Amino acid sequence: METKNIIKWWDFPSATIINKNLPKTQIYPYIKKVEDKKLLQDSVQSIYILANIQTNNTHIEVYEDNKELYQEIQFFYVRMKKKDESKKVYKLLAHLIPYPLVVLIDESKNFSIYTGRFEKLSNGFLKLVSIYASPFYKADDLKEVLKQLSLADFPKNNMKEFYDGLRDKIVTITVKVQYGEEVDNITSEKKDQLDNLQNQIEHLRKCIKKERQLNRKIDMQMKLKKLKDELSNKLNNKHT
């Protein structure tokens, strides 16, 4: 994948574009854990800073309240050596860089886009609370996917609305693929609820298979039905 094409298809405002390689040697001194250095060395081929969204280059206002801080938003492109390490790489970058991140991760024939949900700490730094990734797409679909996520389409009242708009669009697409349902807009918080219900359902299914007492199995099956109904209602925006 060429960074110039990513930038063009993603529709970055010209003033925000950086498009520079970030050498791993510049990152190593800031990494404390040996396993994180090994992750960067063994799994990551290269890192590029695509763009930096700031008030002075977009007129999108900074957002801050007691729990959140959006001063600027940085976009990265990461080319991987190994598969199945993308989430760890996003977590590492989010730990090192004190801004909400959007990272396009290239695994040769496939790619995914990673975003997060962050909380402001008392010292002003950000803590990564949750990670939200798009489905994995084929490399040939890059142009089409980025056009669907054109940055021109998201709210620009402030940095939070802009970032949350992009993240929730990605989350909604992921939910459609994950649950096989046509859904309206899904926020990251709602996806957390859906995934929690799905985890409960899977756990209960396993328990039902192991249970030998009929009365307990029947009781668990009733609970399972309630969880499935609750999941279905949330997917379809129905109140339970």
Describe the protein.
The protein contains 9 helices and 9 strands. By secondary structure, it is an alpha+beta fold. Strands 1, 2, 5, 6, 7, 8 and 9 form a 7-stranded mixed β-sheet that branches. Strands 3-4 form a two-stranded antiparallel sheet. The chain is globular, with a radius of gyration of 20 Å. The termini are far apart.
Compile the SSE list and pairings.
Elements: H1 3-10, E1 17-21, H2 24-27, H3 34-43, E2 44-53, H4 55-58, E3 63-64, E4 69-70, E5 73-80, H5 86-96, E6 101-106, E7 110-120, E8 126-133, E9 137-138, H6 142-148, H7 159-179, H8 188-210, H9 214-235
Parallel strand pairs: 5-6
Antiparallel strand pairs: 1-2, 2-5, 3-4, 6-7, 7-8, 7-9
Helix pairs in contact: 1-6, 8-9
Largest sheet: 7 strands, mixed
The total of helices stands at 9
| H and E string | HEHHEHEEEHEEEEHHHH
Structural class label: alpha+beta
